[in-house]
Design a protein that fits this description.
The complex is a heterodimer. Chain A has a single domain, classed as STM4215-like, CATH 3.30.2000. Chain A has two helices and ten strands, in the order H-E-E-E-E-E-H-E-E-E-E-E. In chain A, the strands form two sheets. In chain A, strands 3, 4, 5, 6, 7, 8, 9 and 10 form an eight-stranded mixed beta sheet that branches. A two-stranded antiparallel ribbon of chain A has the order 1-2. In chain B, strand 2 and strand 3 form a beta hairpin.
Amino acid sequence: MQNAKDTFYEILRGRLAALNPQRTIVVRGTVRPGLLVDENELLTSVDLPDCFRLDWGELQVDGEGALPRVTMQCVLAYETAGTALNGGMDRGRLLAAMDEELQAAVRMCPQFAAKMNYAGLANGTAAVSMSTNIWWGDSVFGKTVVKDDRLARTATVAVMSYQETGEL
Amino acid sequence: MAEIAKDGVLRLAETQLRVAGGRMVLLRLAVPAVPGDDAEQLGLATPEFQDRPFGPVVFERADSITTLLVSAETVQALVGSLAYDSADVLFETAVGLAIDGVLYQIVDSTASQASGEAYCYRLTLRRPMR
């Protein structure tokens, strides 16, 4: 499952960065594309605005086939206060722009990719392609939530993969 | 004249914290991330940490939520030497405060001001779950 999670993050990050290279975040002094995996970052009490924060939600395993089929809910949270110099009056438009970017990145063809094993990166070796693919559905958008001066939304994407033998 | 008054307030805050039994703790900071390092972004590699002496500090109360006072002089020295944009950025990006071997998370920071200048910071800390 971890390989499917890692692969989906890498694919989505690349697509979002290609769609809008200006959407970046600064994490510990380094500029990155505007997508981060919450569980891989240091704990913080601050929700970064104007970027996508990825969490993994519900998990289902279907053991009927030759390989267990795993369905994971990818939860993407994002929020914006708009442009400060505009008094935040464009926050609705900026949230809509983030909706569109996410929608476009998720729906971009193909909606599948070869599952990769990134464990080697810890030792300086390259990621390895695995035998099966991951694939995913369309984004399901939640309602707009007002968080103080910010507008926030959560979208979910169902990400599916086959659990290969011996895989984490 | 205003500069002298500002220095006076800063020193007064520092002195009062020392007199009130202020002690040193450690501010834990993560070293800057490696650009383009997927291993860190995927949680495969953890960043290195550095502990900076931080104090004198005084605890306002100790409970599940702990509040701590630290002088602006101490904070400004760190912000300047580590090239942070502001005290807020320093506290938001810090991993936490190591106090007697326990790492507290910084939940909130508020500056107390006199004549528009911060002389003391109040940090709200959260003790880790056991």
